[in-house]
Structure formats: structure tokens, C-alpha cells
Write a structure and sequence with these properties.
By secondary structure, the chain is of the alpha/beta class. The chain has ten helices and seven strands. α3 crosses α4 and α8 packs across α10. The protein is elongated, with a radius of gyration of 25 Å.
Amino acid sequence: FLIGPLPIPVTGALALPEWDHLDRKVGVILIVVAVCASIAGFASVRIRLARAPYRAWILFLENVNQVLTKFWWRMKVVNKPTVPHKGGVLVVANHTCYGDPLLLLGAVPYRPFGFMVAKEYTERPWLGFFMGIVDCIPVKRDGMDAGATRRAMRLLRDGGAMGIFIEGRIIPPGQGSDPKDGVAMLALSTGAKVIPAHISGTVYFKGMWKGMLVRHRARLRFGPPVDLSEFQGNRDRETVHRATMRIFDEIQKLGALEEPAGFNGEPRCAL
């Protein structure tokens, strides 16, 4: 707090006129500054909401996710994301931990997309609520879910975006994985672009909440759209599997570009 009139050098430094007993007006000045800051903040929020691809509630969650992924999980996007701003697209990645969907969303803030997730997760009260907000599609684990497949195809044909983990489950470090053909089937059936992505630098935990709360040093790398033109027009099982392996190979190539060192000496969740 100011005591007594401000000396001339101070008022000059603050670009204030030489007012007598300026200290008596400090409260009014602070109120004026607070009102001006509030108006500027409100205008900034209005402009951002008008330009954002999300609804207001989604934008709030996106901001929370940015803080989580960039500051707590120390996410680094190695190269510029190749996910297009418009048109049907599948963002296909390896699966290393429970936070992978949030990492992908945090790396591509300009393009909202949901995921195909195991149905039991959507039936949990809190998880189901948030997954419903971002338009996740629940899928039965037995793979026999024609309704979920039709819904995903309709979304992609309408120009929507979707994230899918090609292994279908989290792969613990040191274990091999077999890619699932669902991604290629969706791409060949809808003509959606396929963008490969590789996630590394995370630490694997079997429990969901521990895996979400632990600090990672996540790295994401995106590749160019996978060329599936040679497989178009033929969706028999062998052709679909070959397309799947093409996508899988592109993700593995991205992973090969990462340095082999793990996170703080612990094994990195590998593809």
C-alpha cells in the first residue's frame, strides 16, 4: 500500500499525472483495472469460442487436457501432426498406456475426434460420461459388433475423424502384438485417410488410475497418410489383412525413428 502522496519520479515512471493524494485513489484505480481486465478476458473467451472446433464444455475439457499432457505427462510432438483439418480420417497408433487417447487429442487440438473403446469402459459412471462427450463408440471385445462398425463407417463417410489403436489393447513392454484388421476394413469401406502415429516415452502400469497419475515423458510422431490405393476395390480377408500390415509397418517405422533409451531407466512401452 502507498503511504502519502507519490513522488513525481514514481508517477512519471507509471505514466500517471502528478495528482495530489494519489494514494487515496488506489482503490478506485484497482477497480478500474480489474473491470478492464475482465472485459478483455470476456472478449477473448468469446472470440476463442467462436473460432474453436469444440462446444464450450468441450473446449474447457480440451484446456484441462492440454495442461495434463503438456505439463504433467511432458508430451512432446516430434513433428507437425499430419491429421487433415477436414474430411474422414482415421488416426491409427500403437497402444502403450491408458493415457494414449488423451495424448493423441492433446497433440491434435485443431481436430476433435473420438475413439472406438471397449464397451465396459463406457459403462463406468465417470468414464462413460466423458467418453460420451467426445463421441466415443463402444465396441464389444468379442469383435462381433456390427452396430458399432456401422456407426463408425457412417461417421467417417460424413467427414468425421476417429482414433483407433491398431493392436486393440494395451501392449505391455516386451510383449509382441498382432494388429487387428478392423482399421483397414473401415478405411477400405469408407475411403477415409489413414494417419499413422507412434507413441513412446510412457511408463506402463497395469492399473488404470496409477497409469494416469504417474508422470510420463511422452513423445508422439506422426507420419504421412498411408497409401492404400492398391487394396481398393477388393475387401476379401486376405486383402484387408495386407492393408492392415501396411498400416502397422508404417507405425513401426515411426517407432524406429525414436531413440532407444527408456524413461528414467524404466522400460519404455514399445510397439
